[in-house]
Amino acid sequence: MASPERERKRKRDAQGQPRPVVPSSSSQSQVIKINRKDVGSHPPIIASIHGVELPTDLTFSAFSKKSKVSKHMSGGTKGEARETEYCLQAQTSRIEYDGRVEGEDGLSYYVGVYDPEKGSVDVYPSPLVHVRRQVRRLKEKEIPEKASTGTLMDSRQALSAAFGNRTSRKALKDEQLNAITSSTLGSTGATSVVSAISSAVDSATALLPTSESLRTGSGNSKYLPPIHADEEGVTVDTVYRIEEMVEKKVLDGCAEGVREWEKSVRAGGEVESTISPHYVTSRIRGVIDSGANVTKRLKILRYIEHMIQFHRLFINSFSNTVYRPKLYDTFVSDDKAITSHLIDTFTDAKNQNKNERQLSKTKLTKLYCWLMILCLKVEEDGRMDLFDLVQDLQIERREVEMAAREIGARVEAFKEGYLKLMGYGKEEAREHKLVALRLPLVFPKNKMLQVRKR
């Protein structure tokens, strides 16, 4: 054993000097921050390629597709969820390469990107796909073989022919004997069938609205009066014409009630409507004081009062149906012409009985649309608050908003300054919506014209 006093041997260089001490890398350790990033719908994809040699100029196309899968919920029940499957695809003149996720191995895969300047690693979750190759010609041969297996109906018929009883075999034989094919028809018969179908389709679709008419609102003729939005020099007041909605003799029938309103207001009294205590009552004095087209606007306002009373009478009746002779006795109007116009315009005969008048869903929507048009004609600037009309009709606000959009009007929220000026809170502000009729009219998109997103 060496003596402790003995001097230790030190390594020296060629000149006999001690070698410099190299600092340990552990002394210069650096803290690296790991950040997990959200990749959204376009994550990086990890491809596993076993036993496949790829061409150097091969380019893969990445795509995703969603599918419904059943999953066990926490409560022990099964529910449906949508999962996204990521795929890779490439091909040459002979070989086709497909990359797909093959089952779940219980592991999660990530791609890390190191940034030496920031000293951080961005980690992205990445799906793992396995790339397989297949000869294109062999794949094309498999397609007609699968198609030749037949449909489910063919399989059932073959099963009945092989193992069915006497009744099922007889039914199958009768079906085969009565089958109509192109060979049984012949060239002349096939041509006549095609021409008959074409003529039937043309006659059946002749009265259907076109796509353009549905976009402009002219296809909604069952709800709306004639629209003059495409005419030259049209204004907000003339896009819907009052004479095409309500006949002159019907409006003249409202003259007696209008004279009573004017007489009461000019005498300094208060005018109140028991039928429409919110909308009509709050606008009588304003229309008279404005001095602009007073008589016509008051007649429209009086007709609106009759429409609200007519709506309330049918809504409160059983199955929205009223007996016509009883309607003339129950409904109080200024003139019988008003009652007849409301019955003919907004009701249908129930079970082909002209005396049984019903307010159907279609006619109810029409009544709301016409009511919105007439209310906007009463307003000077074509703008109004929905709240008063909703209160008088005693229906949900969304039904009146839907009718406003059907006529091409815009439904907007009031500005905060106006709401504060009126002293409305948050709950009250939700019930007050502004309806404005402006050109060009904006109609709701027809659902049949929208392209379904896959």
Which structural class best describes the helix and strand composition? alpha+beta
Strand content: 15-25%
Helical run tally: 16
Spatial order of strands in the largest sheet: 2-8-5-4-3
Measured distance between first and last alpha carbons? 85 Å
Low-confidence stretches: 447-454
Order of helices and strands: EEEEEEEEHHHHHHHHHEHHEEHEHHEHHE
Taking the sheet with the most strands, its summary is: 5 strands, mixed
Give the beta-strand count.
Answer: 14
Instruction: Compute the average pLDDT.
Output: 79
Share of residues in helices: 25-40%
Shape: flat
Return Rg in Å: 40 Å
Family: Belongs to the eukaryotic RPA49/POLR1E RNA polymerase subunit family.
GO molecular function, one term: DNA binding
Keywords: DNA-directed RNA polymerase, Nucleus, Transcription
Protein name: DNA-directed RNA polymerase I subunit rpa49
Q: What do you see in this structure?
A:
The protein is of the alpha+beta class and 454 residues long. Among the domains are: 32-137, no CATH class; 242-449, no CATH class. It has 16 helices and 14 strands. It has helices at residues 136-147, 152-163, 166-177, 182-204, 211-216, 248-252, 255-266, 281-290, 294-315, 324-330, 336-346, 361-378, 387-393, 397-406, 416-422, 426-431, and strands at residues 33-36, 46-48, 61-72, 78-91, 95-100, 110-115, 120-125, 128-135, 321-323, 348-350, 353-358, 383-385, 410-413, 433-436. Strands 2-8-5-4-3 form a five-stranded mixed β-sheet. It has a three-stranded mixed β-sheet with strand order 1-7-6, with no helix packed on it. Helix 8 runs antiparallel to helix 9, helix 9 packs antiparallel against helix 12 and helix 12 packs across helix 14 (397-406). It is flat. Mean pLDDT is 79; it is low at 447-454. Pfam families: RNA_pol_I_A49. It is found in: Nucleus, Nucleolus. One of its GO terms (cellular component) is nucleolus. Its main location: nucleus. It comes from Orbilia oligospora (Nematode-trapping fungus).
